[in-house]
């Protein structure tokens, strides 16, 4: 009688084989069968089936003792869990591998070696038969062994993987998720190693891991084998690609962030007990990206194909969690694992949950890193330097560590928040925090040194991409909005936004787009350098400041490339987040004193007694002192629209005093490739100077729309310095003269069939102004994110009272 088939090659497997080979192996088979014909590269390999595990334990008579250890185990007793897990692993590892299983494993190894040539090394990975289900990821619960060479090492690694079904973390995870320990079996994946020890590896998601935005591929990576990225041992590089425009044929990286990549995992030299080791990453490699843009686009293409395939199988959109590795010898990029994403994509999109800090900002920030989960939590610090200290952890404390491992999960589940020195947004600590619904600050360098055991801190991940650890208990509240029955007004409600880090999160709000994206915020926060300084560093008189400018642009072709690419990434991120909704970006509106505050700025700016009325806006763009800088702005905007494909981007000219200025600015834009009307480009103008209102018919011939800037328009209509405290009482957006200005502006835009909007604070601060504008029939009102929902409801009520019908 022939032996049972204990080996199945990837090419023989599909997702229907989960009961036989587990989730990981079934997914690898599905990828190998269905995706390699589409150009997705997957390493070859085979599965040691779940019956091999069960038959070994049956032959060894191991089941009764395993039941005795686990049937009545209280997993909250950490010490008892550790004892039971250790003994269960001993039982499984000690069970002899049946002769038929061993023979088939050895034969499969030899076949794989014959196909791949000498020097074969494999990754041996665990694949539980209940793994990678939509409701439970099992990620990191079981063991993996890398760079396994030779038959004897392989046999041992297979047995160790089988024993890892009873790691403490796996026992705890199954208990929490309602899985019977004895209805889950362990299959093993044996896969050709990709020599990423000579290149790079990492993780990618087909969803933004923080906001849940579905239209991006988010890629993280570092030098060497991928375990460091998965476990959070390094601060990785990050890359975004926008899926809708990628599908349209635009091949561009949306944005990228350079990580520190402190260490890299490589093969250990010689025959040692540990087949892989971590080495410090050379400084030159830490300063460059681990992937080229071309590599990123190959990965994005694979991710989209994988998501499309799994979505078709599921009958609904299925976000994916994918591991990748780049082969050093030939530079090819491989997919080594794919599973459904199980945390972010499960959120209820109709329930908007927001955490808001109520503190006055006086609490000092003790540590910062990358925010995971837009939440806030307060608790006492518990420093954990290694697993031996986990028993002291108390529920509700803030876990602070260098990094975390899957063994810590039983304790992590009781934490109020997590803070780690190292790791990126796809590391173990980040993934667990998302699944648990708690905030985490990862990559908070030196946090374990500056935070003291037992002190109270507030961990805030509700302020954008930067997570902060505040000293003491900072007051906060949570507000939940049910969007199920939200009534959308006829008047478009848009949002004011300048920070790209908030774009994906804010775009989830039910708004109609971005009415004002301030370019100067992106320049100030993400570029930091005066545009003329990057073009002419030789004119910077301060040597230290000149060195800072050159250092910032060191990884780029030149200073101009640095400015253009960084600005395009910032604006492009906002445009991608809201795509295809319109995003109106106002060209830079720094005043001369604000420009002077940028790095290198003092050598390029005049001193003005009243910068508010001086060298700003349209007049600056066409002046010889700044014309080259304006060309950089235009080049960046052209890149967003034509290279990134984000044609929902509209441009807006600020502080345009005269018609002649307007004509010359539009001519300059056209000369830089931004011709109004070409490729659907619309150009708006800020309506913030009385002359814009008085000559609105003439301005309407030159521009596609008007956005009222109520702050400057009030200042110039009433002759009040808006920055002066002594005359602050005279600054009144509801003054009869101001209301008449608003009326003339809206009616003038309507008369000329041009878009009319307002992006100032007046409608947010004064509901009477909103009521007045809605009555005039203004097309859109743009607000800060915290005012959107409240004002939307108020505007709807105003429209109902005026007899206008809202949107569903």
Describe this structure in words.
The chain has 808 residues and is an alpha/beta fold. It folds into four domains: 7-193, Dna Ligase, domain 1, CATH 3.30.1490.20; 197-346, ATP-grasp fold, B domain (D-amino Acid Aminotransferase, Chain A, domain 1), CATH 3.30.470.20; 351-482, Phosphohistidine domain (Glucose Oxidase, domain 1, 3-Layer(bba) Sandwich), CATH 3.50.30; 492-801, Phosphoenolpyruvate-binding domains (TIM Barrel, Alpha-Beta Barrel), CATH 3.20.20. It contains 30 helices and 30 strands. The strands form six sheets. It has an eight-stranded parallel β-barrel, surrounded by five helices. Strands 15-19-18-17-16-20-21 form a seven-stranded mixed beta barrel. Strand 18 (417-420), helix 13 and strand 19 form a beta-alpha-beta unit. Mean pLDDT is 91; it is low at 131-138.
Summarize this structure as a short list of keywords or feature phrases:
37% helix, 808 residues, Dna Ligase, domain 1, alpha/beta, Glucose Oxidase, domain 1, D-amino Acid Aminotransferase, Chain A, domain 1, single chain
Tell me the name of the CATH homologous superfamily of the largest domain.
Phosphoenolpyruvate-binding domains
Characterize the largest beta sheet: strand count, sense, and whether it forms a barrel.
8 strands, parallel, barrel
Number of domains: 4
CATH class of the largest domain: Alpha Beta
Report the β-strand fraction as a percent range. 15-25%
- By DSSP, the count of extended strands is 30
Structural category: alpha/beta
What Rg do the Cα atoms give?
30 Å
Spatial order of the strands in the main sheet?
A: 23-24-25-26-27-28-29-30
CATH architecture of the largest domain: Alpha-Beta Barrel
Provide a count of the helices. 30
Form type = elongated
The CATH topology of the largest domain comes to: TIM Barrel
End-to-end C-alpha gap:
68 Å
Low-confidence stretches: 131-138
Helix content: 25-40%
Mean pLDDT across the residues is: 91
């Amino acid at each position: 009688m022939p032996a049972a088939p204990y080996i199945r090659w990837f090419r023989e497997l599909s997702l229907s084989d989960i009961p036989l080979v587990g989730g990981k192996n079934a997914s690898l088979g599905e990828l190998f069968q269905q995706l390699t014909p589409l150009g997705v590269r997957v390493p070859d390999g085979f599965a040691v089936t779940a019956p091999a595990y069960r038959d070994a334990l049956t032959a060894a008579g191991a089941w009764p003792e395993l039941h005795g250890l686990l049937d009545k185990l209280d997993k909250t007793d950490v010490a008892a869990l550790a004892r039971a897990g250790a003994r269960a692993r001993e039982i499984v590892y000690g069970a002899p591998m049946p002769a038929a299983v061993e023979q088939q494993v050895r034969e499969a190894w030899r076949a794989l070696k014959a196909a791949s040539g000498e020097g074969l090394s494999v990754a041996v990975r665990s694949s539980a038969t209940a793994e990678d289900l939509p409701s439970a990821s099992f990620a990191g619960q079981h063991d993996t062994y890398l760079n396994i060479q030779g038959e004897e090492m392989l046999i041992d690694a297979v047995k160790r993987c089988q024993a890892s079904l009873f790691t403490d973390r796996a026992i705890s995870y199954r208990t929490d998720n309602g899985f019977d320990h004895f209805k889950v079996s362990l299959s093993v994946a044996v896969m050709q190693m990709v020599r990423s020890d000579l290149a790079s590896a990492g993780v990618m998601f087909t969803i933004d891991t923080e906001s849940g935005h579905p239209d991006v591929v988010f890629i993280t990576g570092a030098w060497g084998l991928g375990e460091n990225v998965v476990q959070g041992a390094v601060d990785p590089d990050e890359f975004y690609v926008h899926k809708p425009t990628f599908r349209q044929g635009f091949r561009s990286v949306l944005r990228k962030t350079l990580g520190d990549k402190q260490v890299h995992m490589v093969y250990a030299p010689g025959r040692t007990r540990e087949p892989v080791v971590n080495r410090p990453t050379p400084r030159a490699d830490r300063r460059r990206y681990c992937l080229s843009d071309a590599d990123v686009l190959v990965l994005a293409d694979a991710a989209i194909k994988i998501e499309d395939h799994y979505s078709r199988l599921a009958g609904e959109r299925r976000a994916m969690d994918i591991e990748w590795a780049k082969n050093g010898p030939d530079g090819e990029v491989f997919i080594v694992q794919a599973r459904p994403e199980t945390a972010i994509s499960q959120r209820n999109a109709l329930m908007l949950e927001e955490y808001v800090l109520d503190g006055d900002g006086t609490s000092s920030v003790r540590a910062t890193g990358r925010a995971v989960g837009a939440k806030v939590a307060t608790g006492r610090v518990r420093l954990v330097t290694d697993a031996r200290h986990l028993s002291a952890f108390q529920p509700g404390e803030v876990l602070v560590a260098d990094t975390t491992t899957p063994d810590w999960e039983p304790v992590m589940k009781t934490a109020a928040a997590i803070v780690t020195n190292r790791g990126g947004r796809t590391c173990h600590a980040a993934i667990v925090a998302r699944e648990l619904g708690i905030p985490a600050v990862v990559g908070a360098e030196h946090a374990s040194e500056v935070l003291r055991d037992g002190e109270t801190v507030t961990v805030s991940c509700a302020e954008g991409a930067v997570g902060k650890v505040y000293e003491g208990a900072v007051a906060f509240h949570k507000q939940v909005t049910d969007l199920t029955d939200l009534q959308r007004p006829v008047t478009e409600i848009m949002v004011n936004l300048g920070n790209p880090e908030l774009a994906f999160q804010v775009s989830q709000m039910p708004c109609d787009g971005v009415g004002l994206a301030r370019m100067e915020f992106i320049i100030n926060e993400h570029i930091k350098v005066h545009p003329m300084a990057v073009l002419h560093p030789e004119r910077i008189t301060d040597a230290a400041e000149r060195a800072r400018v050159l250092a910032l642009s060191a990884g780029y072709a030149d200073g101009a490339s640095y400015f253009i690419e960084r600005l395009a990434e910032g604006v492009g991120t906002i445009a991608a987040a809201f795509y295809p909704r319109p995003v109106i970006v106002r060209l830079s509106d720094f005043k001369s004193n604000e420009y002077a505050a940028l790095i290198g700025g003092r050598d390029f700016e005049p001193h003005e007694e009243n910068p508010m009325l001086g060298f700003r806006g349209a007049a600056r763009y066409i002046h010889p002192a700044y014309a080259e800088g304006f060309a950089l702005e235009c080049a960046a905007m052209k890149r967003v629209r034509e290279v990134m494909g984000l044609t929902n981007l509209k441009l807006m000219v600020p502080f345009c005093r005269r018609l002649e200025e307007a004509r010359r600015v539009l001519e300059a834009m056209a000369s830089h490739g931004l011709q109004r009307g070409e490729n659907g480009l619309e150009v708006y103008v800020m309506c913030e100077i009385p002359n814009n209102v008085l000559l609105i018919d003439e301005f309407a011939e030159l521009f596609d729309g008007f956005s009222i800037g109520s702050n400057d328009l009030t200042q110039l209509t009433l002759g009040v310095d808006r920055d002066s405290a002594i005359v602050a009482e005279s600054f009144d957006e509801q003054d009869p003269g101001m209301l008449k200005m608003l009326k003339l502006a809206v009616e003038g835009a309507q008369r000329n069939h041009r878009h009319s909007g307002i992006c100032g604070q007046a409608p947010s601060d004064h509901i009477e102004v909103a009521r007045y504008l809605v009555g005039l029939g203004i097309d859109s009102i743009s607000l800060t994110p915290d005012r959107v929902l409240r004002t939307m409801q108020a505007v709807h009520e105003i429209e109902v009272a005026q007899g206008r019908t809202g949107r569903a």
